Each structure stands twice: as C-alpha cells, then as structure tokens.
Amino acid sequence: MEAKCYLKYQKNSARKVGQVLNQVRGKTLFEAEQILRAVVKGSSALVAKAVRSAGANLSVKLGRKIDLNSVRIKTAYSNAGPMKHLKRYNAGPQGRAMPYKKNMCHLTVVVSDAKEA
To answer: What's the total number of domains in the chain?
Structure first.
C-alpha cells in the first residue's frame, strides 16, 4: 500500500530541496531519518517533516503502527512553485525600487510498504 504527502508553497528553492531528496530516495524510513539528521542543509528539516508525514499517512491507512525498517520511500521530488506571488523590493539608487522574487517549491513524497522486485 502507498501513502503520499504533499507540502505546497514552501519557501525553499526546488533545486536545494531536490538535492536533499536525492539522498533519501529509495531508503527505508529509518535510514532516511538518520540521514536527514546528519545533513547540514536548511531544507533537511522540511524534507524530514514530509517523510514523517508520509509515514504517518501510511500508518493511518493501514490502521496499525508501521515498522520503519519495512517501509521505503518510493518516490520523492520537488517542483517549482509560483513565482508571481512573492515579489519583493529592495531600495535602489535615487529612490527607485529594485525588484526580486522569492523561490517557492512543492514537495511530494510517496512511501510504500510493498516488497519491490
């Protein structure tokens, strides 16, 4: 059985989150938690939150507690979020506004307890 977790509109860049997701993709939930504790990136807390949530969703679907060593992360990816909403401005010379945009991403994690061939 599979369970999913979506985190939308997160204030992290999709590329930086993807770098952390590449390290935990295909691992068990127990291994992923250990790896994410050791990773020194700001987005590792966000990925850990998504992995825990996906595991909790699977636990609710099955109606029992799950063994962290038997559940694997099947797919994990991040997509770029909307860039038009968080437009910000820095002060520029002669009273002008210098625009910049904040990065956003959507994060998806799918976990499965089935044995892979």
So the answer is: 1
